[in-house]
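FAQ: What does the model actually see?

It sees only this:
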Amino acid sequence: MRFMMIVRATEDSEAGVLPSRELVAAMGKFNEEMAQAGVLLAGDGLQPSSKGARVRFSGGKRMVIDGPFPETKELIAGYWIIQVKSKEEAIEWALRCPNPHDGKDGEIELRQVFEVSDFPPDILPPEEAAREEALFRELAARQEKR
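And it is asked to produce this:
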């Protein structure tokens, strides 16, 4: 099963304050540990929301809202996608993570990623499920070639 480990934004991350050299080194070591264990699929830090945008849907209309966004506690500063055997294993990895907030209060949220197999056939018919799985295998193969 896959989990997303979500690092919440802080006032510092939203202000564009870069992490300390020590934190960058600790995160690099943590990333290497997850890669060597075969659980790391992806992970990145994110630029402040001032460099982003949101697309809001209202019925058939779409509206673009440029950042920054006001609620820091609702924003994401970074993430990892990990492949583990259980929620407990995902929690174990999150507990091993260096504090992503340079020693200040913060949190990492864990969310399980939907798999194609989570959808019943009346919502995702077998032929569509097979296409989805083939697409993601192709994307993974492209990533490996990089």
